[in-house]
Every structure is written in C-alpha cells, then in structure tokens.
Amino acid sequence: MAWRKLPAPVRGEYIRRFGEALRTRKAELAEKITLEAKKIISESQGEVQEVIDMCDFATGLSRQLYGLTMPSERLNHRLQEIWQPLGVVACVTAFNFPVAVFGWNFCLAAVCGNSIIWKPSPHTEGCADLTKEIWDSVTEDHKDLILIVKGGNESANDLAQNEKISLFSATGSCEMGRCLAPVVATRLGRSLLELGGNNAAIVCPSADMDLAVKAITFSAAGTAGQRCTTLRRLFIHQSIYNELIKKLIISFDNLIIGDPFHPSSQVGPLLNEQSYVNMQNRLESCRSSAIRIHGGERLDIDNGFYVKPAIVEMKTHTNDMNTETFAPILYVMPYQHLSQAIDLQNSVQQGLSSSIFTNNLKESELFLGPEGSDCGIANVNIGTSGAEIGGAFGGEKDTGGGRESGSDAWKSYMRRMTATLNYGSDLPLAQGVEFDDK
Ligand code: UN1
Q1: CA pair distance 220, 214, nearest whole angstrom
Q2: Would residue 437 count as lying in a domain?
Q3: What is the pTM (predicted TM-score) of this model?
Q4: 256: Cβ–Cβ under 8 A, 6 or more apart, which residues?
Q5: What distance in angstroms lies between residue 402's CA and the mean position of ligand 1's atoms?
Q6: Helix %, strand %, coil % for the chain, to 5?
Q7: CA of 337 to the centre of ligand 1 (A)
Q8: Structure confidence by residue, pLDDT tens digits, 112-153
Q9: Are residues 292 and 161 in the same domain?
C-alpha cells in the first residue's frame, strides 16, 4: 500500500525498526563516517546516535501529528486543521554530518507520509549507501521510500528545479543557499534551508572559567572546526581576558591531534587539501590585523591535512571575522560592556548558534531576551555546538530560517488543511453575510 495511506503510527513502526537496525549496526556506520568525513570515532558514533534518537522521537511523533480544532462561529459547524503529507521531499546534505542531517529530515518526512530523494555530499556517498542498506533491511515493500541521487551542484540544481519536489531541504554554505533558493522560489516551491553559521560566545566575569575553557575548546576545535555550529568568535570581558586566553592556549596545546580512528584522538584531519588551503589563506589574510596568532600550522601526520587549531587575537571585528571559514580558527576579542559584546555577536550576516558563559541571572536573561542573541540557538554555559535532537535546529538571517529535527519542526513536512464541516441543514455564511432571496 502507498506509504502515505498507511496510518501514521504504522509508519512510525517502520521508523522504530530502522532505529533498532541502526543500534545493531552503529559501529559499522560510525566507521564509515570516520573514513569519509574524517571526524573522530567518538563523534561519528555520536552522529549515528543522533539518527537513532531521531527514530525514537519520530516514532512517538507518529501518534502526535496533532491538528487543532477551533470553535466555529456558525451553528452546527466544525472547524479543524488536518495535516496531510506533502509528497516527495528532496534532501541535500553536506559532508560534515553525512547521516545525522539526513536522519533529521528522513525520520520526520517519513512519519509525515512523504518519501525522500537524498543527494549526499560527493565526499560521503558511502555513508549514504550504507544508511540506505540499513533502511532496506527493515522493509520489503517500502525500500523506495529513500532514493539516492549522486552528483554535485548540477544534481542539487535539478532537484531545486523539479516541480514534483514538494519540499527542498538543503544543508550547506550560504553561497549554495543563495544559488538554489531562488531556483525553488521561481517555481514557487517550498524550501527549508540550514546554511552557514558564524557562531559566537561571550564570557562574562562571573563565568566558571574551567567549564568555559572546556566548552570553548570542544566547540572551536572539535570536528576540526567543520561543524556549522563550530565556535568561530569569542568575546571575553576585559577583566578576565588575559587569564582566559592563557588557559585556552594551554587547552589547545594539550589537544590530541591524530588518526580519527584512534580512540584517544580529539581532533582528526581536515576534509582535504582545499579545506587546508582555505584555512591558510584566511590566516594569511588576517595576519596584519591580528594582535597574535597561536597555532594554525600543518602537522606532519600520515600525509593527512592535520592542523593545529588556531586562536587569533583581534583588536577589532574585521571583515575576516564576517566570513565562515570551515576550519578551526577561533577569533578572540575583549569587550567592556555586555551590550557591546551582544552587538558584535549579532553583527554578522549568519544567525545560527550562540552562547554566553555567566553565573549572573541578569546577564543570561538579557542574552535570551529580545535585546539579546539574534540566533536560532542560544545556550547558557554550554558551547555553540552539539545540540540535542529534541529542540528545533536552525538559524536566522543568512543561515536560511529553516528548522529541522525536534519540537514542531515536523510541520514543515506536511501541508495544513483547514477544514470546515457543516452538519446542519442551513447555510449560515461567515461574518454574518446575507445572500438569501429577498
Ligand atoms: C551541522 O554542522 O550541520 O549541534 C549540524 C550540532 C550537531 C549538528 C550539527 N548536533 O553541532
């Protein structure tokens, strides 16, 4: 039977089984991620766990696709919302989260009654094939719920153009979004975009310094700086600037950089030579405006593009800091007043993730209030990366405005039908309009 005709909880049961199969094959899929995306094995296992968590979430959700019932102003009428599947969802994913972002999209799309066409990054097609193989192992009749399309920008463009795609969901750079969103808009299609970030953290005088150092190090250097949520800019209150910088330099010096398959490695290599060249070009470009640059150099390990994550001390917020360089470069600046730090944080075009480190309630409330962070994600005493699936994930401004994964993000994968039903014998018109023969 057609997938969209199955009762949603039956669709949820398939997703539950997919989660069970992923649990069984977690190690195998994680190894494939480390092989292709080159992230450390613990992060790859975490990424598979993210898909498993999505399966659990979506299974529960399959019984909770609630539509509101509103009181009708007319006698013997019922007014309600019914949520319907959209049809085919296209999902374009990036190399850095080769299965988790697919999981966010697929699990929701599937319980909502849609099928998915997945275009993975050309760097991580093996991860896509293995994920599809795991899906195929849990179903005889619905293997074609996932179709994989391989290729580069042209394939993504074909999907964006295709009138039969009801939702075009894409994760990647702001440039990619600027190219593809107008293509979807020209056919008045729907898109869901999760584009670049340029995430900042603010460290206030009352912060727990050791906790902040740990969180900053993971967010800035983890995944070799290749998450959309990676911490790229750090604003430190001037009264604690020197102390925190010293601790951060020690923390970065102590990072274990090496083979991502080795369980003790904390930072693996960059994806490829291009990523390395981009990083070096950016460091070169900010050399004249920086006060000091710590790290950033290539390390001679196994012919890979291993780098020492860089800390760049800046005097002012320069143009270099406005661009997302997909590599471990952390720009650091002192600030005097919290409102000034928040302004600097919000001064970039992207609006994905943000953090404040403070033990002062007034500061954290300011940060989370209407005059605070302008990002889709705002954390207190946690770094900018590593969000759980339960919340809606995505960002504002040039990040594209889309929301994926938890909360009510499922609504993007359905169409809202407003139904008014007359169970009386008269035909009263809304707003008291009279249309009877006089
Ligand atoms: C991404 O880099 O595109 O919050 C996604 C995080 C991860 C997802 C990152 N859960 O860092």
Answers
A1: 10
A2: no
A3: 0.96
A4: 264, 265, 266, 267
A5: 14
A6: 40, 20, 35
A7: 30
A8: 999 999 999 999 999 999 999 999 999 999 999 999 999 999
A9: no
